[in-house]
TrEMBL record:
<dbReference type="Pfam" id="PF00474">
    <property type="entry name" value="SSF"/>
</dbReference>
<feature type="transmembrane region" description="Helical">
    <location>
        <begin position="235"/>
        <end position="252"/>
    </location>
</feature>
<dbReference type="InterPro" id="IPR050277">
    <property type="entry name" value="Sodium:Solute_Symporter"/>
</dbReference>
<feature type="transmembrane region" description="Helical">
    <location>
        <begin position="482"/>
        <end position="503"/>
    </location>
</feature>
<feature type="transmembrane region" description="Helical">
    <location>
        <begin position="75"/>
        <end position="99"/>
    </location>
</feature>
<keyword id="KW-0769">Symport</keyword>
<dbReference type="InterPro" id="IPR038377">
    <property type="entry name" value="Na/Glc_symporter_sf"/>
</dbReference>
<keyword id="KW-0812">Transmembrane</keyword>
<protein>
    <submittedName>
        <fullName>Na+/proline symporter</fullName>
    </submittedName>
</protein>
<feature type="transmembrane region" description="Helical">
    <location>
        <begin position="394"/>
        <end position="418"/>
    </location>
</feature>
<keyword id="KW-0915">Sodium</keyword>
<feature type="transmembrane region" description="Helical">
    <location>
        <begin position="509"/>
        <end position="526"/>
    </location>
</feature>
<dbReference type="GO" id="GO:0015293">
    <property type="term" value="F:symporter activity"/>
</dbReference>
<comment type="similarity">
    <text>Belongs to the sodium:solute symporter (SSF) (TC 2.A.21) family.</text>
</comment>
<feature type="transmembrane region" description="Helical">
    <location>
        <begin position="457"/>
        <end position="475"/>
    </location>
</feature>
<feature type="transmembrane region" description="Helical">
    <location>
        <begin position="6"/>
        <end position="28"/>
    </location>
</feature>
<keyword id="KW-0739">Sodium transport</keyword>
């Protein structure tokens, strides 16, 4: 490491002012001031075009944490690490769109998935989905602030906490004006800058670190597993847990759902396919920097893999390339942090204030909704800054939150397709899955033959669930069911005696298995009336009275039915 930081305080401050000044200018220009529309603040009118929506989806999925974590995966697991991180993450974006088309068809003008669950099941299901998203978005904010703080501390004389405050303040100032509209429009500029930087920086690092000679001479720094493209260690510790985690992210994450509800319905498929390609190419490319660091024998500063990327930049890049690197990371973390703020404000505006007013039959005040949304952004930023001081592992946070959402995946998907799923089946399955997930994930269970066998059997079921859901989205229930069963049976001989040794993987799979078994079992046993999906569209319309379909004007029958559901 150089004795002096490569960027001075003045340079960093100027870069931050330019970056956040331009994004704030864009946000203010699109702001409608006192006439800001509450629904536009949350979903931009449900009609965003292809270019903006694809760029926003790409920018939101490519966050600083994903760049840092991909590089960490490359450093820890070798040449296949970034593939296991970036490829599966990209494919999960692709797997969203068939489910997304169904969700949008059922709830064309909804704002949050929790709002839909309130109509589909009731208050408990809504609170579970909303609560998990509040937790997930705050953790996501925190991890992005950690990434920003580490970047600024490594490249300038400013310390970590000062960097966190600078990033948090910049993101909050431009997002609070127009909410989701500010997020998606600034995403376009941010993703252009970010992808341009990646195209320049990845080849630059390769040649600066030694190019072809590095790959030949540095191979001695790799273990046999790290040098093996088909590394079982990389798959079991990174690839397999991430497959389960990102599927849960795709279904449970409000930042994704918000873009799903915002894009024009006929553009869902091309939007998600484009984002798949953009994410995969970018994140795998950045992850290869971790592999190059491994070949070069680099030790992360302070033993913290979160420092690896900024350390490489500070050590090996000339000032113009360091500036480009700085912009790339700031753009990636800002594009996701503003999405988290928009998601959190949307949850509070819709699932706390809006739904409470609707259940009581009162008209919704758009002005009050906007005030609540903006206050939510301020409080969420303060909470994330406070937690960022803990400097937790970004990779562990991502896998943990994704696995936690795994408890919700099957109940949520089933609720959009299966008319007989009940509120009790949803609620009990999620709670029992959470109870099973936590002790497995954190190693609280005693390690013995009987307990390991139980975990592994549930894990095999979880494998079938994950594969089955992927196939179901594209090919329907018969192919999904058959594919899931075949996958579980085929992998069982390899999984037995192995899954229990990997806490992140086994925890995720157990969450999927328990939630699926309980939800399906209780649903088959239920004698309730089939649900009418047409009800969802009537009760999840826009809030603002200026919109074409104000949802505050509903019949007495709808109100009575809704109160009965709740």
């Amino acid at each position: 490491m150089p004795t002096e930081p490569p960027l001075g305080i003045v340079t960093v401050v100027v870069l931050l002012l330019l970056f956040y000044g331009l994004t704030m200018y864009m946000s203010v220009k699109i702001s409608r001031g006192d006439k800001e529309n509450a629904d536009d603040y949350m979903t931009a009118g449900h009609g965003i075009g292809f270019g903006i929506s694809a760029a926003s989806m790409t920018a939101t999925w490519i966050w600083a944490s994903s760049m840092y974590a991909s590089a960490t995966s490359g450093y820890l697991y070798g040449i296949s690490g970034p593939i296991h991180y970036g490829l599966w993450g990209a494919l999960m974006i692709l797997f969203i769109y068939p489910f997304g088309k169904r969700i949008r068809a059922v709830a064309p003008r909804a704002h949050t998935l929790a709002q839909v669950m309130a109509v589909r099941h009731g208050r408990s299901s809504q609170l579970m989905l909303a609560g998990s998203n509040v937790l997930g978005s705050v953790i996501s904010l925190m991890s992005n602030f950690i990434a920003g703080g580490a970047l600024i501390a490594m490249l300038s004389p400013l310390n970590f906490i000062q960097g966190v405050f600078a990033i948090a303040g910049g993101v909050l100032l431009y997002t609070i004006w127009s909410g989701f509209r500010a997020s998606v429009l600034t995403d376009f500029a941010q993703v252009v800058a970010m992808l341009g930087a990646v195209v320049v920086l990845v080849p630059a690092f390769f040649f600066i670190l030694g190019g072809v000679d590095l790959l030949r001479e540095g191979s001695a720094n790799l273990t046999p597993q790290q040098s093996n493209f088909f590394s079982s260690e990389a798959f079991l510790k990174q690839g397999a847990p991430y497959i389960a985690a990102v599927l849960a992210y795709a279904i449970g994450n409000q930042t994704i759902a918000q873009r799903l509800f915002a894009v024009r319905e006929d553009l869902i498929k091309p939007t998600f396919i484009t984002a798949t390609i953009g994410y995969g190419a970018t994140v795998i490319g950045v992850g290869m920097l971790g592999v190059l660091a491994l070949y070069a024998g680099v030790d992360p500063a302070g033993g913290d893999p979160n420092n690896l990327l900024p350390q490489l930049a500070a050590t090996h890049l000339a000032t113009p390339l360091i500036v480009l690197f700085f912009v790339m990371i700031i753009g990636s973390l800002s594009s996701t942090a503003d999405s988290d703020l928009a998601a959190l404000s949307s949850i509070v505006m819709t699932d706390i204030y809006g739904q409470t007013a609707r259940r009581s039959g009162r008209a919704v005040s758009p002005r009050t909704m906007l005030l609540i949304g903006r206050l939510t952004m301020v409080l969420a930023t303060a909470a994330a800054v406070s937690f960022a001081a803990l400097e937790l592992s970004i990779l562990d946070l991502l896998v943990f939150v994704g696995a936690l959402w795994g408890c919700l995946v099957f109940p949520v998907i089933a609720s959009f397709y299966w008319k007989k799923v009940t509120n009790s089946a949803f609620t009990v399955s999620v709670l029992l899955a959470l109870v099973a997930f936590l002790p497995v994930r954190f190693g609280w269970l005693p390690r013995n033959t009987g307990m390991d066998l139980a975990v592994e059997l549930l894990g095999i079921v979880g494998i079938g669930v994950v594969i089955g859901l992927m196939l179901f989205g594209f090919f329907g229930p018969r192919v999904g069911l058959a594919g899931g069963i075949i996958a579980a049976l085929a992998l069982a001989p390899f999984a037995l005696g192995l899954i229990a040794d990997y806490a992140a993987l086994s925890g995720s799979l157990v969450a999927y298995a328990v939630s699926t078994l309980v939800c399906a079992g209780m649903t088959f046993a239920s004698r309730g009336e089939p649900f009418d999906f047409d009800v969802i569209a009537r009760r999840t319309g826009d809030f603002d009275p200026e919109d074409d379909e104000p949802s505050t004007t509903r019949s007495a029958t709808d109100l009575d039915d809704e109160r009965a559901t709740v």
